[in-house]
Each structure stands twice: as structure tokens, then as C-alpha cells.
């Protein structure tokens, strides 16, 4: 495979056009040629020591072929024209085997894309030894708070992306991001997580993530067994970002059509309380996940998914928009888990409230404070029944104050109930992204009434 250093500039300029030419010769009416060139540097650490330092140069061509009532997409790891030709020849019989749907076409350009400030920081691509210093600062900050051991991963990304289509789109952009996710342990059953995510170095705070992680670990020493029941719960940003990611996926026309959405037939209806306004802001300055255009070349826009509790926007690409006789929302995105281009939100923002975290504790009265989770699973996607396992620091709330740590619980509830029972949202937001939060999400703490809590069997 050719490397970014050897071929990045020429590939970004020439390969999308070559894909369009070859797609046209194969008989496609709508063709998108895309190339993404990414340099990724990762530092992994465990038990206070760096264990892996690795750099990847990844070049990924994307091919989209539309034939009116059928379409297909493919993402390659080989940038040679021979690989492109071979992939197109493999795509033709595959697309012919697909069922016909409504006729659809990719957006017709050219477009004037909005300049979104703060998505690129020239310092990030030059980071090398500085990444080790950042890891050290995060570890030291955690240890200073009382942690005994710290593990996690810090990664920087420099992404260049270009797009060329048979309908007149010619677009390119350059993005950066740096993120750290770490867990600190004061004992085996006393841990805390810290996260920092930013498109630039000036807003990146690995030391702050370390302090938060270490502080949670120290506070959660000697947890007792929690109790089942219906509890008022203050959710930390990490766990609620995970839940909002499921909300964003359910707002996708793809998920609705495939039967994986708890928002099916709910457009225009109340699905949450007045406190819930969730925006997919792909034009947000310095927003991780923001980008001027989607993977069909449609200009990005700001979409209110849920506005004061009302389900307001279904995310669309050209295909789903044609099927439902509406317009694309600029959300066409290559989704590796599905292996095709589908409409997916990429930059979530939850409106902030006017209360502090401690105010939410006071409003909760008696309940739980849950900071983190993993293994969110749906028992029924259509109804929104789910469960997720809290991990890391979890505390009782007693008489409006933070109480002792607890363990051994599971959240077992319904997403519509969670949204409708949201009583208050805090001020003071932060970006969340880690392996349980694929879509970058900007939010604070959230108070939800009478959440179903069961004993964890793990």
C-alpha cells in the first residue's frame, strides 16, 4: 500500500476523478469518488507505564455507484487503479442482486461550502514526543489525586479528505483531533474514568482528564452493594453521551427503515421532556465530528434532532430522502459497522441548563450518581428497552449530597422513558468520545427521575 508521505497529495487530487471515470465506463449514473488520507499516532499505557507507541498512515479510497433504483458503496485499503477497477467489477454483480427501491440521485453540484473554523490545528500533525509528555502529565495528575495505577490511550489524528462526483461536486477538507481516555484505580473495585477530546491543542487537557480520573478512583474506595428499584439518577457526561449516541442512531432514516429505531412513526411527537434539545451540529466551530460536507458532497447543516422534547428531524442521505419524498439533511456517512454509506449524525450537542452538578444532586434528593458505563444492549430496538452496566465510580445521593460509593448495579430501562423523565440538565459541558461513544458528544450532567435499576450479575 502506498503511504501518505509518498502519494497523499496526488491521490487526493487525482484518484477521486479516476474513480468517477471508471464508474462511468461501468455504466453507473451517479458516481462518488472519495479519498481519505489519515495519519494516526497512538500512545497506549498500562499500570503507569507506556506500553505501545504506534503510527499509522492510512489511505482509504471510497467508491459509490448509483444506478437509479440501486446503489452500492465500497471502501478500499489499496489505492492502485487496478484495485479500483477490480472493486468496481465486484460491485456490479452485487448491486444487480440488490432489490430495487425508489429512484434516487446524489446531490447536483457545485456547492459553496461553509468555512467551519477550528477544525484544523497545524500543531497536531507535528506531534511526536509531545504525545509522551501528555501521557506523563495525565498519569502524574491521576496519581497525585490518589490513584495507584493508570491505564489508557492517547491518540492524535490528521485527516485530509477529498471528494469528486459525477454531478459536479469537487470538495476537500483537512481535520485534526487529539483525544485521551484513561482509567485510574485506587483498588481493583475503585476506579474512575477521564476523557479529553479536542480538534486543537489549546483545548486539549490530558492533565485535567487525569485529575478527574484519579479523583473518582480515590472517592470510590470501599464501595457497598447498591440496591435495586426506581432511583433518581444523575448521569455523568460519559454515560449519558453513550445513551445519546443511541438516540442519534435512532434518528437516522436508515435505522428507522431497518427496524432498529425507537423513533419509528414518532416524527413531530413528544419523545422527551422540555429539557431535552439534541442537535447534530456538523457546522459547529471546533467541533469534533464537524465537517463542511457529507460523503455524497451535500453541504453539511445543523439539524435539531430533538427540540424541547419533540422529535424534529430524521437524518437523511439522498437515497432515504427519495424514498420518503423529502430532502437530504447532509448526513451521508461511510459507516464501517454497516459497510455502506448511510445517514448518521456525527457531531452531537445537548443544550445546557443553568444548574451545577451539585444543584442536580440537591434536586435528586435521594438517588444515584453514575459516571460511566459499558455494554449497552437493547432487548427491543423498536420500543427502546435497554440495559447498560455502570462501571467505575458510582455513588449514592443522600439528602441532596454526594454519598458513599456503591457497586453491583445495572441500568434497565427504556430510552423514551429516559428522555421523557429528564428533569434537569447542567451547565458546563465537555466533549466526550471514546470506545463506547462513537459520535463526539458535547454535554454536561443530566438528572433523570425514577430510572430502573437492577442487580448486575457480572
Description:
The chain is an alpha+beta fold and 458 residues long. It folds into 2 domains: 4-209, 2-Layer Sandwich (PmbA/TldD fold); 223-458, no CATH class. It is built from 9 helices and 24 strands. Strands 7, 8, 15, 16, 17, 18, 19, 20, 21 and 24 form a 10-stranded mixed sheet that branches. A 6-stranded antiparallel sheet has the order 3-2-1-4-5-6. A 6-stranded mixed sheet has the order 11-10-9-14-23-22. Strand 1 and strand 2 form a beta hairpin. The model is unreliable at 1-6 (pLDDT under 50).
What's the SSE blueprint?
Blueprint: H1 4-25, E1 30-46, E2 49-66, E3 71-75, H2 81-96, H3 129-144, E4 149-165, E5 170-187, E6 190-198, H4 206-219, E7 224-225, E8 229-235, H5 237-250, H6 253-258, E9 278-281, E10 302-307, E11 310-311, H7 318-323, E12 332-335, E13 340-343, E14 348-350, H8 357-364, E15 367-370, E16 373-380, E17 385-390, E18 394-398, E19 401-407, E20 409-414, H9 415-420, E21 422-425, E22 430-434, E23 437-443, E24 446-455
Parallel strand pairs: 7-19, 8-15, 14-23
Antiparallel strand pairs: 1-2, 1-4, 2-3, 4-5, 5-6, 8-24, 9-10, 9-14, 10-11, 12-13, 15-18, 16-17, 17-20, 18-19, 20-24, 21-24, 22-23
Q: Count of DSSP E strands?
A: 24
- The number of helical segments is 9
Shape designation: globular
Low-confidence stretches: 1-6
Mean pLDDT: 96
Provide the domain count: 2
The radius of gyration is: 23 Å
For the biggest sheet, the summary is:
10 strands, mixed
Distance between the termini: 43 Å
The portion of residues forming beta strands comes to 35-45%
Q: Portion of residues in helices?
A: 10-25%
